[in-house]
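for the writeup, i need someone to sanity check this before i put it in the appendix. the sequnce is what the collaborator sent (i think, or maybe the updated version? ugh). structure was predicted straight from it, no edits. if anything looks off just tell me and ill rerun, i have time this weekend
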Amino acid sequence: MSLNIVFDFGGVLFRWHPPSFLARVWPHRVANETEGAAVAAEFFTAYGGDWGAFDQGLIDAPTVTARIAARSGWPLAEVAQVVAAVPDELQLLPDTVALIQQLKQAGHRLFFLSNMPEPYAEHLEQSFPLHEWFEDGVFSGRVKQSKPRAEVFELACRQFGVTPQSCVFLDDHPANIEAAKALGWQAILFSDAAEARRQLASLLA
């Protein structure tokens, strides 16, 4: 049986762990991951607010930088440093690459659905062979919609030419998994590639 498997990117195919990221980028402000989690909550606002608008392509990098600095009181230059450092944080997770290659060899169709601002989407396309791994994909910054809103899942199905029931979605955020399931998708909360492989095998059994 062949599946349409749809991958999230941050935390699934690419490293994305804001607490440790901020501890590396802002060592003068963030001493450890515990502090990093608190700062990340304020910086990224749970991917709503100004960062959510950046994810959706509704504002650009200078605008999100200015808005974060204005509401937080952090210096503009330091906020800009974090925004500029995100691409280097998005390092490939080799175990997920191996899973992708295995799934492709088994004949499954692979797609992606990622909340990703346009500048970071361009970086990923230029730095990694996304077109070799995936038939097609949706970046939130290009379609002006983001997870967990139903509209972006519906748009993805239309663009990929698939039905919700034929899709299996891999994402590391429970809210996105719940949204996908509510629309009829099968979905796996991603923790690591080995567990995703086990759960996919169960679906195919």
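The radius of gyration is 17 Å. Residues 18-89 form one domain.
thx in advance!!
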